[in-house]
Every structure is written in C-alpha cells, then in structure tokens.
Backbone:
C-alpha cells in the first residue's frame, strides 16, 4: 500500500523545514532514510512539529525530509536532521494550485529549486510562473503544485504532486514544460538549481495525546 502524501496546505502548519542529502546509491539512500526515521522516533517528538515525511529520489541519489511545523519560526535543531547532516531551509507555502474535488492519489513528488534575490523577487517569480501555465487542465497526471518561499528570501521550492513518475516523464518528453523552462532561465535574479522526482518512503505524524 502506498504511503499517503502529506497535506501541504493544512492550516495548522504554516512553516515547513526542508533538508536533503545527496548519496552514492540506493543502498545508502535507504539506510540513511531508515536511520532518519529511527533517530526521530528515539527522542521526544518536537512540540511544534505535526509531521515528518521522508522522500527518496527515484534516481537513488538523494534523501529529502519535509517537516511540517506549527511555529512561525521553528527550531532547525531537530533530532532526526542530524542524520542528514544538512542545514534545513525554512519555507512557507505562498500559493497552491489544487482542485477541491480532486480524488487522485499522488504517487510521485517532483521538486524544482531556485535561488532568488529577495522576498519581492520570490513573489513576482511565482506569480509569473502561475500566469504562464496553460489555461487548460494540463497533463492528466498532474495533481497539484505548491510554491514555497523561504523565510530568508533566498529560495523558492516548487513542490508538485503527480500520479506517477511515468506521468511526469511523459509530460516532460512532450515539451509541456518548455515555456516554463524558458521563464526559469530568463528571469533576472532567479537561478534554477534543478529538480528531482521522489517517492514517499515514510511519513511520521505527531502522537495523539
């Protein structure tokens, strides 16, 4: 059974911490992911965290932690993140593209990361991206998109949910993303750093009571 993806736009989690680690192969990737979850469960659950979601890139080269927090300024010193050895970036979801009646289940996360030169540029860049999207429903495998702006004004993360890795591959191969790639490359103050496809490995939620 597939692990349910987190609800990205939940109102009780305004801030998200994202950390990732590049690894050499799938064996190391899985070992790091399992150790992350073990470390997290060994220590008391942080009071301002509602979920930890551990994603594995489909190329076997990266582990990503997506941590939803209730605090506006959450602590980056969380127990499991020491396993990754990476400083997390704190984000807020700026805009989301979703359909209220959506019933499809996400099977693949696709990320795109950008450096941006300040909060105003962050917002303008996302607004331009959304304005450039096709007016129709796009590829049938695309479920939702959530545009995250870092609190320090230096990053933008696009978090998109797809039905499957294959569906995203088909959309990319068809040229459906070409206009957006031109926008990425030609927007002053914005530098694309690439993206990855992920499967959700494990999702841990805050204990009840």
Residues:
């Amino acid at each position: 059974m597939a692990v349910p993806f987190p609800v990205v736009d939940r109102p009780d989690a305004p801030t998200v911490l994202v950390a990732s680690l590049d690894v050499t192969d799938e064996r190391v990737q899985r070992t790091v992911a399992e150790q992350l979850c073990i470390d997290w469960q060994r220590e008391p659950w942080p009071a301002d965290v509602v979920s930890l979601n551990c994603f594995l890139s489909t190329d076997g080269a990266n582990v990503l932690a997506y941590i939803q927090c209730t605090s506006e300024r959450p602590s980056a010193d969380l127990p499991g993140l020491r396993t990754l050895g990476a400083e997390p970036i704190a984000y807020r979801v700026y805009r989301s593209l979703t359909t209220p009646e959506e019933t499809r289940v996400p099977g693949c996360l696709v990320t795109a990361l950008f450096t941006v030169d300040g909060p105003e540029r962050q917002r303008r860049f996302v607004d331009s991206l959304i304005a450039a999207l096709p007016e129709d429903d796009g590829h049938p495998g695309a479920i939702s998109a959530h545009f995250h702006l870092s609190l320090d004004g230096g990053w933008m993360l696009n978090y998109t949910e797809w039905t499957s890795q294959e569906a995203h591959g088909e959309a990319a191969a068809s040229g459906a993303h070409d206009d957006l790639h031109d926008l990425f490359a030609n927007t002053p103050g914005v530098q694309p750093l690439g993206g990855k496809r992920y499967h959700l490995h494990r999702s841990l939620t805050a204990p009840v009571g």
About this structure: The chain has one domain: 15-205. The mean pLDDT is 90. The longest strand covers residues 190-205. The two ends are 27 Å apart (CA to CA).
